[in-house]
C-alpha cells in the first residue's frame, strides 16, 4: 500500500477511536505572554509545545511539488557537477512522537515512509535516467530539547535543541539519508498580547560531506484566535532556500487537534509548495 494511503487510513482510525467531545483549550488563568502557547516546551512541530509527563503522537501526511529542483548528475553517482533544474513530486507519511521528561527537557522521535518521482531537466544529456522513481523508508531522526528558563513578563524564554538524523538510505538515493547528520540549534520565545514570536537558528554537520554548515533559521508567529483555533505563520530558510508556511490548528477537544499547513517557496531553490495535514493526540 502506498505511504499516503497508509497515513490517511491511520488518521481516520485513530480519530474515530479517540475523538473526545469538543472542549476549550483556553487557559484563561495564565499570564498574557503564555495565553497563545501554554507552559510547555517548544518542540519541532510548528506551534506545538509539550508539558512535563505529556505524550504527543502525531501521524501526518505531506506532499512535495517542485518544478525546479536543483541537482547535479554527481548527486546520482555520475561525474558531472553541472547544475540543472528537475521536476520533483513526493508523498510522505510521517509518524511523530514527543514526550516531556521534565519542565525543562523534552525528547522526540520521527520516522517517515516516502514515495518519489523525479524527472531530470530536458537539457541534461548526462547518463542520469530521464525519470527516477523510488519508495521506502524516509528520514528517521530524533531530538532532545531543553529550555534554559521560563518566560517572564519582561524576559523571553531561551531554548536549545540537538538533532540526529540516522543513516537509513543508500548513497545517491532520493530517499532517506545516506550518513549521519547532526544539528545544534537555539532560539528564544516571547509572548505579547498580539501574539507570540519565536526566533531560532542552527548549525549542522554532515558526515557524508564531512562539513559544517549553516542550518535552518526561522521567524515564527503564533496567535490563539478563539477557544478552538490557533493561527501560526513562519518564514523558514536554509542558506538560499526560504519558504513561507502558514498553519491553522483546530482544537477538537482537550487532547486532540488538527494541524493543516502549506509551505510556499519564496526563493527559486525552495520547494514550490508542500501541504501537510495531520492529527495531534495528547496523553
Name the CATH superfamily assignment.
Answer: monomeric porin ompg
| End-to-end CA span | 29 Å
Radius of gyration: 20 Å
Mean pLDDT: 90
How many DSSP H or I helices? 1
The overall number of domains is 1
Compute the number of strand runs.
14
Instruction: Provide the structure class.
Output: mainly beta
Specify the biggest β-sheet.
Answer: 12 strands, antiparallel, barrel
Low-confidence spans: pLDDT under 50, at least 5 residues?
A: 15-26
Q: Give the class-level CATH name.
A: Mainly Beta
Strand content: over 45%
CATH topological fold name: Porin
Across the major sheet, the strand order is: 3-4-5-6-7-8-9-10-11-12-13-14
SSE order: HEEEEEEEEEEEEEE
Helix content: under 10%
- Which overall shape is indicated by the principal axes computed on the Cα atoms? elongated
Summary?
By secondary structure, the protein is mostly beta strands. The protein contains one helix and 14 strands.
What would your notes on this structure say?
This protein is mainly beta. The chain has one domain: monomeric porin ompg (Porin, Beta Barrel). Helices cover 6% and strands 57% of the residues. The protein contains 1 helix and 14 strands, in the order H-E-E-E-E-E-E-E-E-E-E-E-E-E-E. The strands form 2 sheets. Strands 3-4-5-6-7-8-9-10-11-12-13-14 form a 12-stranded antiparallel β-barrel. It has a two-stranded antiparallel ribbon with strand order 1-2. Strand 8 and strand 9 form a beta hairpin. It is elongated. Mean pLDDT is 90; it is low at 15-26.
Amino acid at each position: 500500500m502506498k505511504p499516503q494511503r497508509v497515513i490517511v487510513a491511520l488518521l481516520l482510525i485513530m480519530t474515530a477511536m479517540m475523538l473526545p467531545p469538543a472542549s476549550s483549550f483556553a487557559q484563561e488563568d495564565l499570564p498574557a505572554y503564555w495565553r497563545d502557547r501554554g507552559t510547555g516546551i517548544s518542540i519541532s512541530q510548528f506551534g506545538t509545545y509539550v508539558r512535563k509527563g505529556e505524550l504527543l503522537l502525531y501521524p501526518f501526511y505531506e506532499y512535495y511539488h517542485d518544478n525546479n529542483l536543483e541537482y547535479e548528475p554527481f548527486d546520482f553517482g555520475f561525474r558531472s557537477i553541472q547544475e540543472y533544474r528537475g521536476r520533483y513530486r513526493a508523498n510522505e507519511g510521517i509518524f511523530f512522537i514527543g514526550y516531556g521528561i521534565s519542565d525543562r527537557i523534552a525528547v522526540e522521535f520521527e520516522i517517515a515512509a516516502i514515495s518519489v518521482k523525479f524527472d531530470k531537466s530536458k537539457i541534461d544529456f548526462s547518463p542520469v535516467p530521464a525519470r527516477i522513481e523510488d519508495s521506502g523508508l524516509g528520514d528517521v531522526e530524533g531530538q532532545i530539547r531543553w529550555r534554559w528558563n521560563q518566560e517572564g513578563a519582561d524576559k523571553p524564554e531561551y531554548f536549545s535543541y540537538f538533532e540526529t538524523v540516522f543513516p537509513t538510505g543508500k548513497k545517491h538515493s532520493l530517499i532517506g539519508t545516506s550518513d549521519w547528520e547532526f544539528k545544534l540549534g537555539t532560539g528564544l520565545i516571547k509572548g505579547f498580547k498580539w501574539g507570540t514570536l519565536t526566533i531560532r537558528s542552527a548549525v549542522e554537520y554532515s558526515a557524508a560531506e564531512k562539513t559544517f554548515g549553516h542550518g535552518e533559521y526561522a521567524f515564527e508567529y503564533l496567535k490563539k484566535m478563539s477557544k478552538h483555533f490557533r493561527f501560526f505563520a513562519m518564514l523558514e530558510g536554509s542558506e538560499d532556500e526560504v519558504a513561507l508556511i502558514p498553519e491553522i490548528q483546530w482544537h477538537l477537544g482537550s487532547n486532540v487537534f488538527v494541524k493543516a499547513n502549506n509551505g510556499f517557496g519564496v526563493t527559486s531553490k525552495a520547494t514550490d509548495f508542500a501541504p501537510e495535514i495531520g492529527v495531534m493526540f495528547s496523553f
